[in-house]
Amino acid sequence: MFVFYEIEYLCLLNSAQQLSSIADDGYKLIVPLLQLEHYGHETNRIIEGCEEKGTVKLIDVEGFEAFLIKNNSIGFGKCFLYLLHTCIVENSVLVIDNKEITQIEFANRVGVETISIDEFTKNVIKNKKYIDFLMSVKDQLIKIKS
What we know:
By secondary structure, the protein is an alpha/beta fold. Helices cover 58% and strands 12% of the residues.
């Protein structure tokens, strides 16, 4: 299972009509509800449509309060910590841009496996034409936060 640090990339995969192929190959993509709440109406509509098609699963996990209390002083926001907690509870891999070095290091420190967007794209997308396209536009699409 995969959780995306940037939902914009998930929307790009949807626009490129790759989510069905990803699901058909047995990959599970999950979106934590708390993360989705931080995005606008259009993004919410797209992701909810993906859930209706069965290509994405929206989830809300239990037990976040204890994880938040333990890691709140680290300096990361509540949403990022919730992503990590979701990855731990759901045994999921965090898909994150390799420029997010501090977040990747912390995720790995708390036991969350990470994969870069580039690696995810190269390993999961089967159509070379789409790989080249996705790699060429990802940096323009994703707001780099670091």
